[in-house]
Amino acid sequence: MPHDHGHAHIDPQSGDRRVSIAIWANGLLTVAQIVGGILSGSLALIADALHNFSDMASLVIAFFARKIARRPADKRMTFGYGRVEIVAALINYTTLILIGFYLIYEGGMRMIDPPEVQGWTVVILGGVALVVDTLTALLTYSMQKGSVNIRALFLHNLSDALASVAVIIGGSLILLYDMRWADPAITIGIALYILYLAFTEIGGPIRTLMLGSPPDIDNEAVVEAMRGVDGVADVHHVHLWQMQEHEAALDCHVVLTADGWGQIEKIKAAIKDRLKDDFSIGHSSLEFEHEDRAHENADLYGHGKPEKEEENHVHRDTDRS
User: Most buried pick, 9, 24, 286, 293, via CB within 10 A?
Assistant: First the structure.
């Protein structure tokens, strides 16, 4: 099965500028909401200000993660720093989950005892927040298609925009009908949607950090493709994982036939070409074994093997050499 890593290519400097604008916009919005909440006596606005402050923190994390990810590999990080964006995404999704539960708690408490709120202040600042959240979402929309880090950020801002709509609707209902319960009720609904988004998306970063195989690559097809190369008797001890978000890697043991043993370089090139062309696996490490001295009963994936059997294999190799 061919493997395509199609994603949007955004100039790094242009992307950094977009995130910087979003950071400043959310910072100014946070200050405005805190001031407005104090002047109007609205705890809802102050709570939303804290929510926006968490978004600004997410933007800062994403911004520096992008910077660090572009560092070249060195002796401390031989695979490079690209995975820092995966870590940033996990942090942002986790905070999104915490915010969702907090909003449900806060909404439940306000359903029990709805507070007095100055509706016009809520509507006006809710409108300002909606503009800022929409701007931030637009700035990061094209970037999120090719980056799990920016996608987490985009979903943060999308949830904020929806929350701002809820704030405006709640403030309007308070002004028109004195329905003070509407604001917490809508908040709970938005919080449930935030949790749905976060729990749906967080599995990807966790899978990558756990060295899980890329979800869009058919492992069995990869194994069969290697087995189908002339001179290959079998493969085992296969490890398939994502080095970075868009870089799949593989290492495995390749068992060669007696005839194939004399053509190791040719077979290695054929396997690497097939992995690259059919599955976009550009990094592969192959260890070759002669079929007469191959591991017996080896697991296809991983390196699981009874210790005693491994010792017997070593002794057999020693006796034959």
Answer: 286
pLDDT, mean over the chain: 80
Dihedral-angle region of residue 117 (phi above 0 means left; psi in -120 to 50 means alpha; beta otherwise): beta
Is the pLDDT score of 175 beyond 90?
no
Distance CA 162, CA 186 (A): 10
Alpha-carbon distance 275 to 267, whole Å?
12
- β-sheet bridge partners, residue 241: 249
**pTM listed for this prediction:** 0.73
d(CA 52, CA 175): 24
Provide φ and ψ at 286, rounded to 5°.
Answer: -120, 130
* CA angle in degrees (0–180, nearest 5) for 235-264-225: 40
pLDDT digits (tens, 9 = 90+) for 253-292: 999 999 999 999 999 999 999 999 999 999 999 999 999 9
CB-based contacts of 262, cutoff 8 Å, min separation 6 = none
Q: Given strand 232-244, what is the order of strands in its sheet? A: 232-244, 247-256, 281-290
Q: What is the mean pLDDT of residues 172-187?
A: 80
Strand 247-256 and strand 232-244: pairing?
antiparallel
Q: What distance in Å separates the CA atoms of residue 104 and residue 102, rounded to the nearest whole number? A: 5
Query: What does residue 231 show for φ and ψ, rounded to 5 degrees?
Result: 95, -10
Task: Look up residue 230 and give its two tokens.
Answer: 């002339």
Query: Reduced to 3 states, what is the DSSP secondary structure of residue 276?
Result: helix
